Amino acid sequence: AGWYWPIFNVADSAVTIGMILFLYLSFFRQNKDAPELA
Fold this sequence. Notes:
With 38 residues, the protein is mainly α. The protein is 68% helix and 0% strand. The protein has one helix spanning 6-31. The longest helix has 26 residues, at 6-31. The mean pLDDT is 77.
């Protein structure tokens, strides 16, 4: 138990940024006529 803020922040921010990027790109690709990725 030697990790408090830095590692948790890095992992949490990575997941959050990944979700935001995924939603952002999905909305962007829905506006255009791009092939669906399912």
